[in-house]
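## tool: complex_structure
## caller: assistant
## args:
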Amino acid sequence: MAEVTLTIDGKKVTVPAGTTVLEAAGGIGAFIPTLCHDPELSKPGACRICVVEIEGMRNLPASCVTAVSEGMVVHTASPAVVDARRTIIDLLLASHPEDCMTCQKFGNCKLADYAYYYGVKKTSFEGERHADPVDDSSAVIFRDTNKCILCGKCVRVCEEIVGRHVVDFTYRGFNTKVGPAYLMGLGEKETGCVNCGSCIAVCPVGALTEKNMGGKARPWEVKKVKTTCPYCGCGCNFDLNVKDGKVVGVTSNPSSEVNGRHLCVKGRFGYDFIHSSDRLTKPLIKKDGDFVEVSWDEAFNYVAARFKEIKEKSGSEAMGVLTSARCTNEENYLMNKIARVAFGTNNIDHCARL
Amino acid sequence: MGISLTIDGQKVNVPAGTTVLQAAQLIGIDIPTFCFEKDLTAPGACRICVVEIEGIRNMPASCVTAVCEGMVVHTDSPAVREARKTILELLVANHPLDCMTCEKSGKCKLQDYAYRYGVGSTPYGGDKHEYPLDDSNPYITRDLNKCILCGKCVATCNAIPERSVINFAYRGFNTKIATAMDEDLKDSDCVYCNRCVAVCPVGAITDKTMAGKGRHWEIEKKQMTCTFCDAGCRFDVNYKDGKVIGVTANAASPGRPLCLKGRLGTGFVNNPELTEQPLIKKDGGFVTVPWQEALGISPIIEKINTLKK
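## result:
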């Protein structure tokens, strides 16, 4: 592929033709802020926070949608660029609630990060502010459109990756709002939302947050533990968010090989069983009509003895094994060994084949 | 022989004279505090640490209430939560909502407790302070609009008799922490030891030298012993992305936690002109030389080497 050499902040860099200025800058560690850009999604070049100065160009182009060209000279942090970015943040803050104190996103919010980085303490534009009611109708997704900066990432992830296209832009100008058809609550069945939460994973601000994590922990208080989802054989990875030894939520881990940041409703939101008081953590055996807690040794010995008894009494063919899609391949392999070698039967099947 | 009491259903035995707050902390119960500081006299002023004690008429501040035999304490009952929520709403009523860019964000007790008790906004409209920012000196930024009047800065400063730079001034809504004659810090006897910065629970007193350099959750801290004198002060060096961005005190006491040298002398760590090899001026220019030459021990080393042979 043809290569292009350009200069970014005084550093020469050679990249394949077609690379964007943003990608080329990322390659040499030059920091360019982004709000609407996402490497997995189409590029609208909408938010303009990634503008850079390119010598010979009339105005400041958005680096996420500007391809490199030979001999280009780019400045990613010149006074004009910093000034433009400050104005963009200033305009976004003109209608953004000042509730970082309790906002669930704070600590992981791009708007707050950039406002701090560029020293925009408050907006200089006074005027109308959005006062939409919050959408609390979904069981798992909390939507506060007052905090939305209209980057459109939730719209694109829902359409381009999840393939649902539940939300999109509605109305025009100041009234522009992202929402489901007829601006129904996300919890309404008719919206077609499957509660996968991919929109939360891409939202750069506090407009979309995990409802069940609300009030439980700030991002800087949690320890993230990467794990594999136990619900099916796909092997999706995500981060368990742990505070004081308790799982308070699940967030995407972009380095997950199988699923990236995408998860289904079960993986992302089905973790409440972990600390459920109903959860069995010790084996039980029914003795005299009541379940009694026993040791694992006793439980295994009991099961093995009963299997042996059945095999001796009624023969191998009296037994069958049905394994689960929630088991790993290794566990399913072991079940196969138990059925064919220990039980001596080919009666083995798997729930995912039904 | 200790005193036995029950806190949130757990039995605990502590020595007489222990406060309810200390007893609760012993069994891992986290009671919020603003004005309480382990090494300072407890004023019992902020009331955020109130608890419910069976048989006591109203809710006492746990930081100044001594335990007594058979006491039954509830630290998180609905009444306690409601009282704390009201205290927070009253504090937020006159507090700037600029957490987005506040240097203290992420390590601010007011923010932490507002989040914990769900105080997103205040129901109390009314006057708000509009004090000018005191950033007259190069070391400490004072924003009295954020002050919650816990008095910890006053107590820690007054613990050193020859300093005692700040104290409460005026009354009622106009109460503020001030230097003598309410002047800027630069015109006071302040030596910028930053004891007040170390104890401030909110963003009222912050380290100016670290402003804009990193959020608390981005900072990694490593404890070190100061190399500037033999007093052996310990402090935390604050790193962001592997670079030193500042120094903070481990604790406000005992004694003076850090002098200006200890706190500001870290600049040389990132100095691009820092040299790792000795230099000797030869013909008007500095030339890199080996340590033997710089220290003038080449002849001695040579002699040792001949002796060895």
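## assistant note: The interface with chain A takes residues 92, 97-101, 105-106, 110-112, 114-116, 118-121, 212, 215-217 of chain B (CB under 8 Å). Residues 214 and 240 of chain B are 7 Å apart (CA to CA). Handing back to user.
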